[in-house]
Design a protein that fits this description.
Elements lengths: L1 E3 L3 E4 L6 H8 L14 H14 L3 E6 L5 E9 L8 E8 L8 H15 L5 E6 L4 H8 L3 E11 L5 E10 L4
Parallel strand pairs: 5-6
Antiparallel strand pairs: 1-2, 2-3, 3-4, 4-5, 6-8, 7-8
Amino acid sequence: MYLETERLIVRDFTFEDAPALHEIFGDEETMANCEPAYDFAKTQKFLEEFCIGRKGTVAAVLRDTGKVIGYILFKSLGEDPAEDVYEIGWIFNKAYWRQGYAYESCSKVLDYAFDERHAHKVMAEAIDGVKSVSLMKKLGMKPEGVQRSHTGDNRGGWADLYLYGMLRADR
């Protein structure tokens, strides 16, 4: 995938992206609503096996510097990549939070999903009921439910899982 926005390039990850990806995945605050922060070896393995190997994600890259500032999950939920239902998710370097980069890049990926992949639906899930849910709403996604105390959080407790989706008909 290769997409351009006003400030970003959204592209497939490369092996050279490991240090920038680790700035994201290695940070405790950034990973608070995901899983424990990764060490560099785990980041590199995830990059190689999932991001590159399975092509389940794309990188959000600043156009002017080439720096990777975000990780965007984008994958088909079916075994066949031609399935019409996709999942989207995001994790951004905290130095770039609240500047519109997640919205800018994820809205472009949603356009790609519906216009190029002819998706029927794109869904997202999060345990962060504030920032992530706000972005899902801003992207035009609709609430589909809350699974109460559904998953563990990084503090050893239980967390609600917020489910949102967008249908082709919603656009």
